[in-house]
User: Fold this.
Amino acid sequence: MIDPIGDTLVARDELRAKITELGARISADYQGKDLVLVGVLKGAVFFLADLARTLTVPCAIDFMAVTSYGSSTDSSGVVRILKDLDHPIEGRDILIVEDIIDSGLTLSYLLKNLRSRKPASLEVCALLTKPERRRINLDCRYIGFEIPNVFAIGYGLDWDERYRTLDHVASVREEAIAELTRA
Ligand code: PRP
Assistant:
């Protein structure tokens, strides 16, 4: 099997510095608020764990798992909840934490769904965004990095459920994609 780990898109040190910066902004913005970080499984787990530990304000953590119908590379926009939040969010300050915004369809659904539960505020913090792939305009308050429209792995992002544990974000090598297509 061809090693799929290609060029570095975001290095480990860049991730660390950006997360510290985002954590400082979030800590300043959520002083005196009732902050709940909502992680979207599974990709956001690593980002959320690192981000949460930079915060200087108290926060609760909850998770949702969703899946979109259709193929993983061309999301249909129809989203199904596999795991809902453990607790109600009415009146609380919700920050959705995502690893990546691609088409924006997952996030668009989540925003609509969570808004209907009447939180005091609802914002988004996404580590990565692929602007070229966006199909819906979204208001995202905290963004880490814009990356090009290539298949990316690492720091939560998977290639057939593997490589999430890479300590940086890399592209998948063309040869590995070609090999998979041939198989
Ligand atoms: C990824 C990512 C977002 C979604 C973004 O999750 O974590 O939730 O896709 O895509 P979109 O903007 O086109 O909707 P994925 O479904 O790959 O699940 P995972 O986090 O478990 O890998």
